[in-house]
Task: inverse folding
């Protein structure tokens, strides 16, 4: 939701967006706010069915997103899927995208006890062991399923969860999401302004969630993601080198329809030879390999097929 991949280019300083793009964003933000209010009053089965309906609408009303997703799938899975299979996967992915967003909004309105019952945590001992080291935890994230629930669920257990975000483009939506994060006690850092605070948060023992399945036009490292070169964000590798924090993959994995669990994987080895540039490249590739394996397990639940990751 608020920390999604920013595949669109930033508008250069001094250049305003065209009026029709600003109007479209305002309409989009208004529609999302209506859905937010609606979701807060609906039971879970209705929320899930509404998400499916929105996913179908998204598929048929977003030809540009369909085109980008097809290009991505053709590149990565072109030898494995026919054109018809790609279309079916894109439709499922968009339905999962809409359902995940609606399910996240539903889950975030619950009490901590209700959220514990709804979302199990797999591999929690890895997190406890890593925090016991006292150097913080870098959580590798991917945009899979209702990923915004991860922070609330970990906060329900009392873990010091922090998150790096881009921030919503609509100020009304960002204000709403900020209130949700405050409700759960989630500390958020904006990518463009708060980067200097991240090493200090880790040294205080925080869990810092970084989503690295996105194109990093600035500050990225050329690495293979799903077998193809792209610019992978370097922040996780740099912070691991600077702080000695443990790196853990933490993401949602799907179960039966409408059900997800938080998966916490084993610690990833971090190379630190003293050659900073080389170490950052090696570690970034290792992290990209880790998330690539997760994406291949659940390809139709990964949202970033719609983004321009490989350029």
Result:
């Amino acid at each position: 939701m608020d920390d999604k991949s920013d595949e669109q280019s930033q508008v250069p300083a001094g250049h305003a967006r065209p009026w029709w793009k600003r109007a479209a964003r305002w309409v989009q933000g208004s529609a999302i706010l209506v859905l937010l209010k609606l979701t807060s009053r609906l039971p879970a089965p209705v929320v899930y069915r509404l998400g499916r309906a929105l996913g179908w609408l998204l598929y048929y009303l977003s030809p540009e997103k369909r085109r980008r997703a097809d290009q991505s799938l053709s590149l990565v899975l072109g030898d494995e899927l026919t054109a018809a299979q790609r279309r079916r996967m894109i439709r499922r992915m968009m339905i999962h995208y809409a359902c995940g967003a609606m399910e996240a909004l539903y889950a975030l309105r619950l009490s901590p006890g209700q959220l514990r019952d709804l979302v199990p945590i797999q591999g929690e001992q890895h997190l406890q062991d890593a925090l016991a080291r006292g150097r913080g935890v870098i959580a590798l994230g991917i945009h899979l399923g209702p990923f915004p629930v991860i922070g609330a669920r970990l906060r329900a257990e009392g873990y010091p969860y922090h998150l790096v975000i881009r921030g919503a483009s609509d100020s009304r939506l960002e204000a709403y999401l900020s209130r949700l994060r405050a409700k759960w006690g989630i500390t958020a850092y904006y990518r463009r302004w708060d980067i200097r605070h991240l090493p200090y948060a880790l040294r205080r023992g925080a869990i810092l969630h970084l989503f690295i399945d996105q194109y990093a036009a600035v500050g990225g490292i050329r690495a293979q993601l799903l077998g193809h070169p792209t610019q992978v964000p370097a922040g996780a590798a740099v912070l691991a080198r600077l702080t000695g924090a443990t790196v853990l993959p933490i993401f949602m994995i799907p179960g039966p329809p409408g059900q997800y669990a938080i998966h916490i994987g084993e610690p990833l080895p971090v190379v630190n030879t003293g050659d900073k540039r080389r170490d950052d490249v090696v570690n970034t590739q290792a992290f990209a390999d880790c998330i690539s394996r997760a994406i291949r397990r659940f390809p139709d639940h990964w949202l970033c097929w719609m983004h321009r990751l490989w350029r």
